[in-house]
Amino acid sequence: MGLFFKSKSKDNSETLQNSAKVIAFLNQKGGVGKTTMAFNTASALANQNYKVLCLDMDPQGNLSQLLGVDVDETDAPQAYNLLINSIRELKGLHSPVLFQDVLVKGKLDLIPSGQALSGFELSVAGISSPRQMILKRMLEKTGILSQYDYVVIDGPPTLGLLVVNILCACDGVMVPFRPDEFSRKGLGNFYDVLEQIEEMGVTKIPQVLAHIPNLVDLRRKQEGVDLKRITQDLEDEFGQGNVVAPFLNKAPLVRSQAQKKSVFDYQSKEFTPLQGQFDQLAHLITSNNKWEMRSEH
Question: Domain with 200 in it: what CATH number?
Answer without folding.
Answer: 3.40.50.300
